[in-house]
User: Fold these one by one.
Assistant:
Number 1:
Amino acid sequence: MNPPAVPAAPSALIIIDMQKGMQRMPAHTRNNPGAEAVIASLLQAWRQAGQPVVHVRHLSRTPGSPFWPGQDGVEWQPALAPLSHEHVVDKHVPDAFTHSQLARWLHQRGIHRLVVAGVSTNNSVEATARSGGNLGFDVRVVADGCYAYAQQDFDGVAHSAQTVHAMALANLHGEYATVQTSAEVLAALAGA
């Protein structure tokens, strides 16, 4: 007689800041225009697999921000809105772990692996992945499931959104997280 199969440990999909306010940013200053479709496919796969999903929402403390509470910029993009049973984390800083009880929520459910997607790669995604790695979680960042915006560095040199995105992923990979494609992440989910 075979022993009962041990269920695979859950992996939480962490979707960061996919709010309507992000759609107001100039499209020509960002990379990866297909990121939202990738995130939607991840969300669908996680739901079908019955795996936990965490939606992170930024609530700004800066008056006039599109993410100031009470404005429609705070609302979820419809295709990525949480279901009633999915966990929502509100944050006021880039890192979803700061002052949110996210780590406790994950530990209480025995969740050790996190798959992170959203915006922006070099801000909230990077901050959350760094903290997750530092807290001992097995963090996977979905390279094609996040995006960044063009910006200047401290010396005033302009960098494309793709360069900013790639540098943020390089900062994370092997140190705080493992950077993977959505195909790799979905294959791992299917094999779980």
Number 2:
Amino acid sequence: MTIEDKSYKEKKVISIGIVSELTGLSVRQIRYYEERKLISPQRSTRGTRKYSFSDVEKLMEIANKREDGVQTAEILKDMRRREQALKGDNQLRNKMLEGQLNAHFKYRNR
């Protein structure tokens, strides 16, 4: 995935009505998932919710888990665990890159 791909997927430009059509979820269900902190739409200056393509994907994942009987509290815990793991992976990757750059340029931290 390129930086450009990520940026378009993260832009909050889709209205709740379109998200409802794309996901098959009712507007009420989408708002409920927002209340449960499973999704975080952006608000326009007029207060309307705006979602990204990543949000749509996340809502589809939530809907699939709910169909399998998973409670929203469990889904939230799982999402937080994955975010923490990703954060740890990114920190490790950054340390490794820093080490490679330091080795390449023969930098020593004193």
Number 3:
Amino acid sequence: MLIERAEDYRIEYNIERPHEAIDWNRPMEVHLGQADLTIPNFEREENLPTT
């Protein structure tokens, strides 16, 4: 059971979860050269003045 959970965690950590240190890209995408490290791939909220 521990091996299954460890494998699930490895998949989530390296394939599904974006990482702040690599501009919110996923490690697998960076490793395969599919990510552009100059452009973060997450949506940002715009904070516009209200007046």
